[in-house]
Design goal:
The complex is a heterodimer. Chain A is built from no helices and 11 strands. By secondary structure, chain A is mostly beta strands. In chain A, the strands form 2 sheets. In chain A, strands 2, 4, 5, 9, 10 and 11 form a 6-stranded mixed β-sheet that branches. A 5-stranded antiparallel β-sheet of chain A has the order 1-3-8-7-6, with no helix packed on it. Chain A starts with a strand and ends with a strand. The model of chain A has no long low-confidence stretch (mean pLDDT 93). Chain B is an all-beta fold. In chain B, strands 2, 4, 5, 6, 9, 10 and 11 form a 7-stranded mixed β-sheet that branches. In chain B, strands 1-3-8-7 form a 4-stranded antiparallel β-sheet, with no helix packed on it. In chain B, strand 4 and strand 5 form a beta hairpin. The chains are: A mainly beta, B mainly beta.
Amino acid sequence: KQEVTQIPAALSVPEGENLVLNCSFTDSAIYNLQWFRQDPGKGLTSLLLIQSSQREQTSGRLNASLDKSSGRSTLYIAASQPGDSATYLCAVESPPGAGSYQLTFGKGTKLSVIP
Amino acid sequence: DAGVIQSPRHEVTEMGQEVTLRCKPISGHDYLFWYRQTMMRGLELLIYFNNNVPIDDSGMPEDRFSAKMPNASFSTLKIQPSEPRDSAVYFCASSFGGDSPTDTQYFGPGTRLTVL
């Protein structure tokens, strides 16, 4: 059974700092990996999706990398801003079995960017 | 489009009562997902539908939980009878499929359920 771990559970940084969020997974046979953002009282918003054949994806100040062999992904946020404060979740999609798609989520890292 | 709509946003009920959560997916999306989020277990998939047909309900915790999708624009998640351990935030998400239906999910704001 796939397990996804995110460490640390919470992180506080001063504005302007570059930071890295970590995600690890136990089964390297993945279909893709996604990073989501969750704001308090709201649903999830997809930030980046990395296919299993890819090594990284970039969107603006965000860069996500994937190393399947080691079961790790990182989300790099450059020049952090207070508006980046949110919980960031990593989710791994396992190859569809019997036509069923499954996302396994980590519990998230709560990021606070201090002005 | 207004996005995925869920109602109610908050629900407080007493143990043993029936609870019905509602979801309206984005028009044109043919996949609908129900998730549950708790501090202890994180976000878990309960069930998902494709073209109104349940595809995988292996995440539904017990027979007390049931989900229906009578048409393309409406789905319900029902808990009967409810128990305090069902307290959680329940999310609905919809997608238009693509290479994988989970690639393009749009989440609703969630329903926070408290069972006393």
